[in-house]
């Protein structure tokens, strides 16, 4: 089974790129972030025509998450991260597919640091930690997947010394990410490529993609009840080079399902 995540940076404006990639990659489950579209403007007809069904949580102009499946039933569990009923930003979607819990997230960027946006990011991460701990205790096969807006380690960023006071790389954020892993979650891409440079995002400025001056922001975490099923994975970095592409590239893994 192939599971992927892709921050599309505007699902309608980049729909041709998304559809082209879906046809090429043929993932079974896809988590999308940054739809930048209200609920009623999600392109469900085109998604259906491509062979996928979907659930989504839109938001006008900003944020938005969706989960697509091909030939698999999808049951929505919740469309917001528990812990703050006043949080109206569309950043989390949790479903059950093939007896697995799939949690698609678009974690807050947090910049500028310091400030209220960074405080919101830290509080959001605390809520996420609580949910990940609950899933571990329930002994469920689960996947936490999406754009984490977290650079975990120095090897995950081009010239890390430039990022020390950026909200993506702040010590507090990286420590929180490691605490999730210590509870039993597996960073699938880093597990598959322990020594290699792996980036998932390249800024539009300064020819970052051409220079491979990237960062790794998009992660796929597996619960202990799935980690042994990990077979392969990668980043479709060539998609970032397509015309009118997102500044993120799709990230995927393959797991063995009985």
UniProtKB/TrEMBL annotation:
Protein name: Exodeoxyribonuclease III
Required cofactor names: Mg(2+); Mn(2+)
Active site: 106, 147, 248
Residues under site feature: Important for catalytic activity: 218
Keyword Transmembrane helix on entry: no
Domain of life, per lineage: Bacteria
Lineage, top ranks: Bacteria, Pseudomonadati, Bacteroidota, Flavobacteriia, Flavobacteriales
Keyword Oxidoreductase set for record: no
Keywords: Hydrolase, Magnesium, Manganese, Metal-binding
Similarity field: Belongs to the DNA repair enzymes AP/ExoA family.
Organism of derivation: Chryseobacterium daecheongense
